[in-house]
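Q: what does this look like with nicotinamide-adenine-dinucleotide bound?
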Amino acid sequence: MVESQRILITGGAGFLGSSLCRQLVSLGHDVICLDNYFTGRKSNIEDLLDQHNFEALRHDVTIPISLEVDQIYNLACPASPIHYQYDPVQTTRTSVIGAVNMLELARNTNARVLQASTSEVYGDPTVHPQTEDYWGNVNPIGIRACYDEGKRCAETLFFDYYREYGVEIRVARIFNTYGPGMQIDDGRVISNFIVQALKNQPITIYGDGSQTRSFCYRDDLVEGLMRMMDSNLTGPVNLGNPTPFTMLGLAEVVIEMTGSNSKIEYHELPADDPMQRQPDIQRAADGLGWKASTPLHKGLVKTIAYFQQRLDKNG
Ligand code: NAD
Ligand code: UDP
């Protein structure tokens, strides 16, 4: 029997946050979902609203807040490049001021706080696979910097609150994650390719498609975050699936799995788009007994079925 905790999840109405809320509610925890609904949707948490141990709070993490909690998962931040580049100043503010506010809350309530950091702290990495002790290769003035540098500064704040005030922190570096619950217009590669394939529209490959990413299924990632929160590992810890795919390879798999007539269409590669990304997950394996166990094909079957359902509903 798990002891019930009061848990705050910022960004709880987003893709990962809503799945985490659902898991923690089902385990009997008292869950508060905080979100400003920038990229999150009320429909993502609709099914939880009548649960006695779930509350939704419209709030922006850049504004300080006072609550009685035992644990905080800080996920508030748009994650898709089109969304975080829409209002880059707000993206940096969300990461940096949001981190200060959640760390202050943790400090005042003696709560443990987990930061949803990102593989983007490694930028366009020159070391493969990326281990946690690699410091990264980030353009500090580029169009991705609002996200990358915002998340890097948030990590700095987490470690300084830990060293200076003894706040109990956990820092997880999340690599590309996909699954049911993503928005149709999310803009990230897996949702784009699946939606385009299901509509028999051109599959948009940015660049020549030789860049690689390693895709982690949502449920594996959420399990990793919960294990990290309950562990004694401060981090940073990489959480992701270590198997890399090229974007061209991914497009071909999606076309085949959906039986689509879509053709591939090449577009310009966005500035500073990392060429290769692959996590070393030894630290998570040793410290959390965790690995991403869902192969891409299996995760795609569920994700394609989800998007098919969404498109059928939208007519
Ligand atoms: P998402 O965009 O679906 O969710 C982000 C949530 O944060 C949304 O509900 C949004 O409305 C909310 N939000 C944004 N700004 C806010 C603010 N100022 N105040 C309150 N709420 C705010 O993205 P996601 O994929 O669920 O990502 C969740 C977290 O995980 C993010 O912090 C992201 O950086 C991190 N992450 C995700 C991935 C991934 O592949 N999904 C990879 C690395 C890191
Ligand atoms: N990408 C693509 N077509 C799309 C969307 C993305 O080729 O329609 C590419 C993008 O340029 C990047 C990779 O897919 O190289 C992953 O992009 P995503 O936005 O999913 O995540 P991130 O770049 O943050 O890893």
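The longest strand covers residues 112-118. Residues 88-109 form the longest helix (22 residues).
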